Structures are given as C-alpha cells and as structure tokens.
Amino acid sequence: xxxxxxxxxxxxxxxxxxxxxxxxxxxxxxxxxxxxxxxxxxxxxxxxxxxxxxxxxxxxxxxxxxxxxxxxxxxxxxxxxxxxxxxxxxxxxxxxxxxxxxxxxxxxxxxxxxxxxxxxxxxxxxxxxxxxxxxxxxxxxxxxxxxxxxxxxxxxxxxxxxxxxxxxxxxxxxxxxxxxxxxxxxxxxxxxxxxxxxxxxxxxxxxxxxxxxxxxxxxxxxxxxxxxxxxxxxxxxxxxxxxxxxxxxxxxxxxxxxxxxxxxxxx
Length: 267
What we know:
Layout: E1 3-5, H1 8-21, E2 30-34, H2 53-64, H3 77-86, E3 93-97, H4 100-109, E4 116-121, H5 123-130, H6 139-150, H7 156-167, E5 181-183, H8 190-194, E6 197-201, H9 209-212, E7 219-224, H10 229-238, H11 243-246, H12 250-260
Parallel strand pairs: 1-7
Antiparallel strand pairs: 2-4, 3-6, 4-7, 5-6
Helix pairs in contact: 4-10, 6-7
C-alpha cells in the first residue's frame, strides 16, 4: 500500500527513510510529481493517437531554423528533444528531477480536487540492468541516441548500422532498446538547471513505465492527500520554493504574483 503524504514533514521524513533503505547506494534518485494519482508515466508524444512523432520532430526542425541551423537532427537529436520539452512540445522524454521538493511542488500545484502522486526511480539500478558493455566508450550516449532515432521512424537495422559507423560499436541488440533509458542532460537552460532536470527516454516498448518496469524493483511512489495540497504549497513557500524557483523568468514571477500578490509574501 502506498504511503499517503499529508505535510511537508511527512514527505521529507519519507524521503530520508527511502534513501536509508537504499543502503550503500549514495547517488541521488529521480523524482517526478504528478498533480493527479490517475496520471501515469507515459511520454507526451505517446498520449495522443493523432500525433506522429516523426512529424513532430520534422515540424520542429522546419520552424526552429535558424536557431538550430548548426545542429544535426541525427547526431544532436537527444539535445534537441530536451529543448523541445523545454518548449512543452510532445516528445518521447519524461521529465524527472533530482530534487525531491521540486517534485512535491509540482504534485501539489494543480488539481486541488485530486490526490497527487510522486514517483521515485532508481536510475542507477535501471542502468545496471540495461547496460552490458560498461567498458565501451560512449555506451551511455549510444543508448540515448538509439532511442531518440526510434522517434524519427528508423528501424532497428538502420539504427544498428548508424551506431556501428559512428561509435564503432557493433553489439547493439534490439532487446537492449526495449526499456526506457535514464540520463541526466546538460543543464542547457535556466529552467532545467533550476528544476534539477533529468530524463528517461522511451524505448521501443510504448507502454507506461509502471508496466514496462514492473518487477525490476526500480520504481516506487507515494500519494499526496488532496486536502493537504494547498497547505504543503504554503509550507514550501516558507522556504521560498515556489513558481519563481522553477521558472526563473517572467512566467514564474507572474505565477507568484497571482497567488501571493508579491514575490516576498509567504501566503
């Protein structure tokens, strides 16, 4: 049964206990806050049957020129997908955060009438299950770009040939691309930096992560009581964790003014 969070202290205590149970694993895990416990972990481009992922990428390439004129929509596709997420376009990426309180904020920010939910992913354990060639140079990038190219409609044979020619790696298997791959991107813009952003990129399996990762013991979750969302948001604001913390621009400033009537009000 999932833990129910009713306060900021409930959550921080739970996170500390969660990390204690990880034993010698000292690295930070990935957190994702959802405003409704009815939502699942499915990339935005797969949520709408009318979307064609390849066409979305081609449209972005067409309309984003000349900003990306020096980018290759093959070699740099993983970086481009991150920027597409920044502009809230549908991709095969799912946003996560290394900061637990960031995810708590987003779980409480919207839908006050519904329970929120926070998923916690152990990316390092998942990485161990996915990567068999740990001494191969660029193996991390090989897994990421291979999955990104799935989004361009490339078949496995074409991807394998590309990886072999570019990275001198000929052991890529179709099975190795089934599950999503976790990674921490370069903090290429202020929002990603402030939100401590990280990602999973979907593999060939198009199901939600709860299904694809079932049984691997890498994914956990807690529920945020809907009746406590506003109180938790106010508690976070006491520590100046608010919209402006995560949207360090005029958008975030407007959100804070709308709710608190000043950047410096606590409630």
